[in-house]
Specification:
This protein is of the alpha+beta class. About 25% of the residues lie in helices and about 30% in strands. The chain is built from two helices and six strands. The protein has a four-stranded mixed sheet. Strands 1-2 form a two-stranded antiparallel ribbon. Helix 1 packs parallel to helix 2. It is globular. The protein starts with a strand and ends with a strand. Belongs to the RutC family.
Length: about 140
């Protein structure tokens, strides 16, 4: 079986691999899934956690549930977009460990976007995924 996603960090670009993601992902032809932004909402309606790291952990669980629903794993993620309210270096430092843990060692392309607000005032982080579905 051929590898469905090839990850690259060419020497002409900063080595994103050291930070836990890839500069480039090359995808072989196949079916794709586009997973809407996942936030720290729970299916049972429990309150949103107050802390950023705790929210990211819940966002990761929701993202993995969406991946499960389409028969994919974190290793099938081509691109992850993370939206962060009040993006600062300190908040990124707090976010990154649970964010990177979401991908279980895979290093998809990542775009971080600072935003003024998300869908509700208590939400701090949202994760959108582009996924190459396994054959």
């Amino acid at each position: 079986m051929t590898q469905s996603i090839v990850r690259l960090n060419p020497p002409t670009l900063p080595n994103a691999g050291d930070m836990g993601y890839s500069q480039i992902s090359i995808v072989t032809p196949g079916r794709m899934a586009y997973i809407s932004g996942q936030v720290a909402w729970r299916a049972d309606g429990q309150p949103v956690p107050a802390g950023l790291a705790e929210q990211m952990q819940l966002v990761a669980l929701n993202a993995k549930a969406a991946l499960d629903a389409v028969g994919a794993t974190p290793h099938d993620v081509v691109l992850a977009r993370v939206y962060l309210v009040n993006l600062t270096p300190e908040r990124m430092e707090e976010l990154m460990p649970p964010f990177l843990a979401t991908f279980e060692g895979a290093q998809p392309c990542v775009t971080g976007i600072g935003v003024a607000a998300l869908a509700a005032p208590d939400l701090q982080v949202e994760l959108e995924l582009v996924v190459r579905l396994p054959d």
